[in-house]
Amino acid sequence: MFGSIKRHMAYVAAFIMLLLQCNPVLWAGNNWALVRVSVANVREKPGHAAELGSQVIMGTPLKVTGSEGDWLRIETPEGYKGYIIKNSVRLKSDEEMARWRLADRITVSSFDQTYIYDGDAASAGDTRDMLAMHRVTDVVNGSVLETGGVPADGFCAVKLPDGRAGYIRLEDVTLLRQRGAAQVNMDDIIGFAMRLNGTPYLWGGTSSKSMDCSGLTKIAFLSQGVILPRNASQQAKIGAPVSDASRYRKGDLLFFGNPSTGRVNHVGMYIGDNHFVHCAGRVMVSSLEPSDKDYIDLDLLGVRRLSEEDFRQMSVNSHSWYF
Q1: CA neighbor of 141 nearest in space, from 223, 81, 18, 63
Q2: At the topology level of CATH, where does 182-318 sit?
Q3: What is the pLDDT of residues 196-225, one digit of tens each?
């Protein structure tokens, strides 16, 4: 009897060791990660040649569910699952993430890509060439950074997810909690998307550097602290349907696709006067009216409108990974 128990325990121990070898990240207790570069790629499979499924920006919290070689299997705050190269993130334990959620944090609010500078930037002068010599990294809208150290004139002291320190212009940031708590301004969301006019399309892209159609709507709403689902087909399931074209409002999401199957494969955002902004080859404004010079021949399958309650539920402030 005792021999049978010992053999059973040996089998269990061997299975546990095999599991830990396949998932060394979990063995180390690092169940979380923070993105440490301005924009990191999330692949469908572990490998640089695998399809680009999505992207995550600096300071985004990720749940780590396993690892394969140099790749981590992760889940994003909106529930997207994929693989990310290890050197794009800094692994964090539950305790470290708990401290991060309690820390004072800011988010990049600049429409355009901006930069974090080293400690000598404040005395380097305000010319572009002089400041460029002191760059630590670039950051994009929505990036999350801890505040830390003594602020310099016109700059906020920050700590990056990998521990590096630097300074960012005060005019380029806002408090993370403040962004998530503010009332959503649809004109600002549309304005953010419109400022990206001409930005090239990238399948899987979700940053202001380049994006796909659902990436555009996602980052536009994130600029107001709202976390949309990743893909157009998922975004088509949120909010309430709007069936009367005469009642479309600014900020309504327009979904296009195959009318015979009902499959959604494209999304844009209504901006008024029968026009919408979307990313198709590049960010552009198109018309729903066939007689208009900006008309684009797409099959409109449906329109959805998000409410204030939807915004509250999808707010960064309501997400347990952030607070």
Answers
A1: 223
A2: endopeptidase fold (from Nostoc punctiforme) (3.90.1720)
A3: 999 999 999 999 999 999 999 999 999 999
